[in-house]
């Protein structure tokens, strides 16, 4: 019983720190977030932050992992609601680009994440996304919806285009206008895959 209570308390502490980190990183950015911003509002100590995450950088990784998981659920729902597998694939990709319009995702995932964590830290998230895209492309190939292409190469290109569109939106003076242009062009690019 005591072990379960400790585990529950640890999970609650982690959740509080992730929520505090998410709020502070979204509002102030990683560089301008002080340790006190991460602990004071949730009435925890720096020691708790170091114990659970090893510091601010580890907390950023956990925040991004949480946002990635929520985004994945959202993207799967968009794909499942589509009228056909092709439309599901296109709308899932487009929704991924649209995520760059959300201030929290723009700042934490697209701007601060790569700047702080660098490429190796992104490899797992990128690989997961790549596998998902490749599986979708392979399913479209199997159903004879798209032209014969190499699934991995096509997934790399589709993901690269979507990521670059998202980064453009995240850094644009007018993110909404950039998203309109990027999404329209992205849709045209994808139609080249259709039979």
UniProtKB/TrEMBL annotation:
The keyword DNA-binding applies. Residues 34-53 bind DNA. Keywords: DNA-binding. InterPro entries: Homeodomain-like_sf, HTH-type_TetR-like_transc_reg, HTH_TetR, Rv0078-like_C. Residues 11-71 form the HTH tetR-type domain. One of its GO terms (molecular function) is transcription cis-regulatory region binding. Pfam families: TetR_C_41, TetR_N. PANTHER family: HTH-TYPE TRANSCRIPTIONAL REGULATOR RUTR, HTH-TYPE TRANSCRIPTIONAL REGULATOR UIDR. This is Transcriptional regulator, TetR family. It comes from Phytopseudomonas argentinensis.
């Amino acid at each position: 019983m005591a072990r379960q209570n400790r585990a529950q308390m640890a999970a609650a502490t982690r959740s509080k720190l992730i929520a505090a980190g998410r709020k502070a990183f979204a509002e102030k950015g990683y560089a301008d977030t002080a340790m006190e911003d991460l602990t004071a509002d949730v009435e925890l100590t720096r020691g708790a932050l170091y114990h659970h995450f090893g510091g601010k950088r580890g907390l950023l990784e956990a925040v991004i992992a949480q946002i990635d998981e929520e985004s994945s659920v959202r993207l799967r729902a968009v794909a499942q609601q589509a009228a056909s597998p092709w439309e599901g694939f296109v709308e899932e990709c487009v929704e991924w680009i649209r995520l760059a319009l959300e201030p929290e995702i723009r700042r934490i995932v697209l701007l601060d994440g790569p700047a702080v964590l660098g490429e190796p830290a992104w490899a797992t998230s990128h690989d997961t996304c790549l596998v998902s895209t490749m599986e979708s492309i392979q399913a479209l190939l199997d159903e004879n919806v798209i032209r014969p292409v190499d699934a991995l190469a096509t997934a790399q290109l589709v993901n690269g285009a979507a990521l670059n569109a998202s980064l453009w939106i995240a850094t644009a003076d007018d993110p909404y206008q950039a998203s309109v242009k990027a999404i329209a062009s992205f849709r045209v690019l994808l139609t080249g895959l259709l039979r």
